[in-house]
Amino acid sequence: MADTRHTKVLIIGSGPAGYTAGVYAARAMLSPILVQGIEPGGQLTTTTEVENYPGFVEIQGPDLMIKMQEHATEMGCEIIGDIITSLDTSKRPFTATSDSGTVYTADAVILATGARAKWLGLPSEDAYKGFGVSACATCDGFFYRGQEIVVIGGGNTAVEEALFLTNFASKVTLIHRRDELRAEKILIDRLMKNPKIEPLWFHTLDEVVGEDNPKGVSAVRVKHVETGEISEIPCKGVFVAIGHAPANELVKDVLEMHDGGYVTVKPGSTETSIPGIFAAGDLTDHKYRQAITSAGMGCMAALDAERWLAGQE
Ligand code: FAD
Ligand code: NAP
User: Could you tell me the CA-to-CA distances from 37 to 15, 48, 80 in Å, in that order?
Assistant: First the structure.
């Protein structure tokens, strides 16, 4: 028979939003349970230096997340390495089923499932995922020592990935569909000064070209967005860095959403369209999407849950 656990507050997700909610809910004596999901520590575990989290001039992303986990644990939040596979919000207590088979019942739920990397959706991109195509420079950059690499995108992630990859690659081509980057000025400045990086403006990825024996990438075909002209760039690695999509699978078609799948919360609050279900971090936020704003919303969610639970008694 499935193991069933009841908690006052179930926190789903272990990024800055989830762990901060864990700290606050534990300090409110709510004995929260936090389920970490497939990526313990969340998106920051896929990056290197974080330079904009107050209190740390510079800290490695994975180290920051370990500190947050330790903080939540120390305060009394129970942290469980499991994945929630479904959430029933139709009756209270809410019921969450997990990959391990454990069923969690909860008086309130804080959703902090964050976001995941977006892909271009090309068949050739899919065919070479894990064989030269990646969405995580920190994870895979080391494999491309002395090789040529391309990075697709023009935001903070693309620029940071391009900069990071120069630690390994002989050359990095940053392919962007416009001639203007949306990354922060300080990062653009570093990019432009780096002799190993060459931007390729007004181009999109048309096809990843590779071989099957052994399986790997040999080039990319890129298309000029105005002329349609196709050209080929030799490379061994393709890093897709075109943003992230909210991880809303548990509540799709259940909660109100906006901007293509971000969970809607009441202004100035973390209350969703179902009382007792709260949402925080990148799952709700298409605008700021930062560790500090996610942590802030995690705090708000725990305080909102505490007040809502008190009102139910
Ligand atoms: P996430 O960090 O996305 O975490 C989501 C969590 O939910 C994960 O633990 C996942 O395992 C869990 N989860 C998902 N589905 C389930 C499920 N079904 N069951 C259980 N758990 C689940 N921001 C900055 O402020 N500074 C930076 O320098 C910076 N650098 C970045 C570099 C990169 C490469 C990337 C991708 C992002 C960066 N960001 C940075 C943005 C920052 O990482 C995010 O804004 C922040 O991590 C969002 O926190 P979150 O808690 O909302 O969710
Ligand atoms: P982003 O800011 O949404 O940028 C995505 C980039 O990819 C844009 O330049 C976009 O082009 C391009 N793009 C999107 N779809 C595309 C497609 N189909 N084909 C080609 N190009 C495409 O995403 P992000 O860079 O991952 O950043 C996400 C959030 O995390 C942001 O809020 C960012 O500030 C934050 N973050 C912060 C840091 C930091 O603070 N150091 C580091 C990383 C991320 P257009 O510009 O033309 O739209």
Answer: 10, 21, 9
